[in-house]
Amino acid sequence: MNKPIGRLPPSPTQRIDPGKTLSFTYEGKKFTGLSGDTVATALYAGGVRIFSRSIKYHRPRGLYSLDGECSNCLMEIDGLPNVRAETTLLREGMAVKAQNVAGSADLDLWGIMDKLDWAMPAGFYYRAFHKPYDMWPFFLKRIRQAAGIGRMNLNWEPGPRDQLFLNADVCVVGGGPSGMSAALSAAEYGLRVVLLETRPWLGGFYDWRIREYESDLPLYKRAGTLASQVAERPNVRLFTHTFVNGLWGDNLVTAFQLGNSDDPFEERYIEIRAGSVVVATGTIERPLLFENNERPGVMQVASAHRLARTYGLLPGKAAVFSVGQNLGLEAAVELADLGLRVLCVADCRMEGHDPELVEALSDRNISFRAGWAASRAEGDRILSEVLLTSLDGANKERFKCDLLVASAGRTPVNGLLSLGQAKMAYDRFTNFFLPEELPPGLHAAGRLLGYNHPGSIEASGRLAGVAAAIDRGANAYKAHREAREQLAASPGPVRGSKHLLAPGNGLRNKSFICFDEDATVKHIAQACQAGFDTPELAKRFTATGTGPGQGGIPGHNLPLVMSRFRGEEAEAVLPTRVRPPLVPTLLGTYAGPKHDVFKRTPLHDVQEKQGAVFRRVGVWKRARYFSEDLSSREEIANVHRNVGLIDVSTLGKFRIFGPDAYKALERVYAGDMTRVREDRVRYVAMCNEDGCLIDDGVIVKLAENDYYLTTSTGRAGSTIEWFRFQTRYDGWEYHMVNQTDAMATVNLAGPRAREVLQRLTEEDVSNEAFPFTGYRELRLAGDIGARVIRIGFVGELSYELHVPASQAVCLWDRITEAGREFGIKPFGLEAQNVLRLEKGHLIIGQDTEIRTTLHDLGLGFLWHRDKPWAKTVGVPALRFTETQEERMKLVGFKMDDPSQTPGDGAIIVDDTILGYVSTARYSEILGESIGLALVDASVARTGTKLQAFQEGLGVDRLPATVVRTPFYDPEGQRQRM
After folding, report:
1. Domain 290-407 falls in which CATH fold?
2. In the beta sheet, which residues pair with residue 298?
3. Which of 303, 341, 572, 862 is the most buried (most CB within 10 A)?
4. For range 960-977, the mean pLDDT
């Protein structure tokens, strides 16, 4: 650890507040930083130079970039491992620790691994440790112990999370000059624009630069002007400190935002459905490949420049620059003016140098060497000396220094374009992989296209923004033509540096192409020799680009190095495929806030007062029990003996009407819709294309071309979309209304249910006037209009009462009062579950699965075959599977020992697994343990012996016998009484 360094005098480009200090700890020692610092810059100011150790060789790693492009600065912060210190804003009281070390980052006992690189060639883990085979478990355990970085803290508690789901006409990714120009251009047409920027502020590479944009206007002030214009646009929504990690089909952009001290969240997941997307993500620096190119003290040009201009920190005392871009010359000049002793500037280019900057170097007596590059960085753990070599290898010179600013040039951040299915191709002039063809609705702008002149960068942004506006229907063709002409008149893309390998850099040297995985140029050569000679294969064989940086460091160099080894032009080798997430994201951020979001029925409060115990059922909270007895025996017995009341308002309730409503019903339901009457409900089944049951319910005809139907709770939210999807090409005219939330439903069940109902209405509800499966519209309690259905799901005399939700509580109270002398009591889902099981009635999703057809469930009679014109969903599959015997079948069973009841999900076994128990309960009225199971057809016959197995019951097997269903009242007399 070096001594802490002082800050530079305040300047307009700085983003720190010298008047506000923040305390934090690093490895238990107290440090201070300034408001606006990141954890990395605060540590750098405190003298820390070794931030971590590499994953394989445990080599020291230091501050290399400030945008989290590699794992060099992954640290444990406040108990969370693998946090990117460069992009994490410093907060008061943070506890920071190094990770992947045995000891400390400065003195890591595992550093001995760096001496054993000869034993770890490319792909050694695929070929070693497997022989003798008996030793493999031993090695496996040790390899797993050594793998990975950081230690998971099981006690870590995440901070608040948030989620946003947005719709935008245009989403612009990148808040630099081209991104801001694109956003402003699109916003001129009144479109909804979302602008996403990785850093906590807008500006891009203008932000810290003092070079003139135009007369007396430096670039950083131009950035401020554009940022102010963005802020003034009410239809531009800005998200800073936001990392885009995916671009999906139909322009779905996913990102996450880091919160600051004023935000109510620590991280926020953002999902944007955009009509058009502009990618203006700019460029990063292509690493220079030379020996020890990742030694602490070696850093990117922008990192050194921003340390000084943004954070007020000189990155070193004595520096050598080895660059391949004019920004490197600019940084050398400015850092020298700020007090850095620049010993030499080597530029690997032979031409293309900015003459003004070359002259400025000369004025400062800084040696400038065109056609030179760094060949080796030396130093025990931290840089102490640099070897520069001419590209022809004829000349060499050493320099004592503590800072090497190294860059081979620029490389575009084009991962989003790749995710958007853009066709990429190598461009010889820029040395970039550029989009050769963009899909509709996707546009690119700025430096990632090779532009470097401010006028060209902003013009390309305006052109992309106008093109995106045209995508959304804006009449912007004149502006598009003008923007295109303006871009054509501006300076074009600049020639890129083609320098790749340092002179004399043999394959024995540690020239790292991937910092995350300790992959060297030598490893790439070994992969080629082994036949893994394409980037995709070499990536997997050497692990290059598979670390936390997701290929940011090696992404450009890998295909160029491989083309060199293959003796081919760069055009022949493309980069590896980019896959999301582009930036690692916490799973907790995807999960979002811990809101327990659920729906309540209109009868929730009244049931709560009666002692209901609620449980989650899908999106609903429903009454599961009405006592502490989880078997609900009293509730069940009361329904069998007297009368019970249950809230079933979650059932899907729909009205479908219109000239073609009947046709739509015939398409979706397997039964015969001609048999649906106005005074009777009909049980119907809905199948998917595989003939598998996905829903059931009842339907009644209200009037001509007007029907009322119910669905299961689980299908209430998707039924209308299913109808629309299945009839989308027919041009049929019909309308559907989802009345699930608008209407409440109460099930009145038990042998005395009719007596209770009769007290509520003046209509005749006798068995003759209102038979089983009948439908009536009644006035209840004088003023409550109800649709009443007589069905028997729970096996007793039963009525479903459908009323407006606003009248549900009134109805419940009046039913309770009318049934008081008959012993009425509410019952919950557990009691209903046992009652319906006794009748052998199934629950979709509990007693069925996605493979079970109507035939498998014994419901084949619901399929009406004589309507081929309807093209009913699932009919071809029903016809095909009707004669298939070797399928899972739903059967009823009784346990041989009534005291033994397997749990739901227990497996049915013989020598193999033959199925599983879907529902099993003890029935008091039968004195038996009964259940339903999905089993192989070979054991589905009545009388077949089954064996159930469930871990933890203390017995090996539970014997049972397949029996016919219903278990209770097989003739159905009680529900028809």
Report:
1. FAD/NAD(P)-binding domain (3.50.50)
2. 404
3. 303
4. 95
**Tens digits of residue pLDDT in 452-505:** 999 999 999 999 999 999 999 999 999 999 999 999 999 999 999 988 888 766
Highest mean pLDDT among 110-119, 573-582, 646-655: 646-655
176 in Cβ contact with 204 (< 8 Å): yes
DSSP 385-428: EEEEEETTSS-EEEEE-SEEEE--EEEE--HHHHHTTPEEEEET
What backbone torsions phi and psi does residue 707 show, to the nearest 5 degrees? Answer: -135, 155
Q: Residue 110 has what DSSP assignment?
A: G
- For β-strands 735-738 and 652-657, DSSP reports them as antiparallel
Q: Which of 935, 925, 936, 916 is nearest to 967 (CA)?
A: 925
Q: How many Å apart are CA 882 and CA 866, to the nearest integer?
A: 16
Domain extents in the chain: 17-127, 161-284+412-489, 290-407, 500-595, 599-650+742-836, 652-738, 885-976
Tokens linked to 614? 């609620």
Helices in 761-873 by DSSP H: which ranges? 808-818, 829-838
Q: Which of 836, 917, 796, 808 is nearest to 632 (CA)?
A: 836
- CATH entry 3.30.70.1520 includes domain 161-284+412-489: no
Q: Residue 819 CB: number of other CB atoms within 10 A?
A: 24
| CATH superfamily for domain 599-650+742-836 | Probable tRNA modification gtpase trme; domain 1 (3.30.1360.120)
Q: What does the DSSP assignment read for 611-641?
A: T-EEEEETTEEEEEESSS-TT-HHHHHHHHH
Query: For residues 799 and 751, is the Cβ–Cβ distance under 8 A?
Result: no
The tokens for 45 are 């100011």
Q: Are 38 and 66 in contact (CB under 8 A)?
A: yes
Q: What radius of gyration, in Å, describes the C-alpha atoms of the chain?
A: 36
Residue 443: HSE in the Cβ half-sphere, 13 Å Cα cutoff: 29
Residue type present at position 974: R
What is the CATH class of 885-976?
mainly beta
CA 726 – CA 585 distance, rounded (Å): 38
Residue 493 vs residues 431, 449, 490: alpha-carbon distances, Å: 11, 7, 10
Token representation of residue 155: 């006690």
What's the number of CA atoms in the CB half-sphere (13 Å) around residue 915? 28
Decide: 654 and 739 in contact? Cβ < 8 Å. Answer: yes
522, containing H or E segment: helix 521-529
Separation of alpha carbons 660 and 677, rounded Å: 17
Mark out the alpha helices in 701-778 (DSSP H runs): 719-726, 753-760
Rounded CA separation 477/733 (Å): 39
Q: Which fold has domain 17-127?
A: Ubiquitin-like (UB roll) (3.10.20)
Ranking 128-132, 382-386, 516-520 by mean pLDDT, the lowest is 128-132
Distance of CA 866 to the CA centre of its chain: 46
Please check whether the two domains, 290-407 and 885-976, share a CATH topology.
Answer: no
Closest of 377, 379, 399 to residue 288, by C-alpha: 377
Between CA 33 and CA 46 the distance in angstroms is 8
- Backbone torsion region of residue 84, taken as left when φ is above 0, otherwise alpha when ψ lies between -120 and 50, otherwise beta: beta
CATH architecture observed for domain 652-738 = 2-Layer Sandwich (3.30)
| Cα 654 from Cα 650, distance rounded (Å) | 12
Tokens 């997307």: give the residue.
277
CB atoms within 10 A of CB 691: 23
Report the alpha-carbon distance of residue 217 to residue 227 in Å, rounded: 15
Give me 454's structure tokens.
Answer: 């401010």
Q: Going along 212-266, which residue ranges are E strands?
A: 212-214, 217-218, 236-239, 242-248, 252-258
- CA–CA dist 626, 829 (Å, integer): 10
pTM of the model: 0.78
pLDDT in tens, 859-916: 999 999 999 999 999 999 999 999 888 899 999 999 999 999 999 999 999 989 999 9
Question: Residue 215 and residue 316: Cα distance in Å, rounded?
Answer: 32
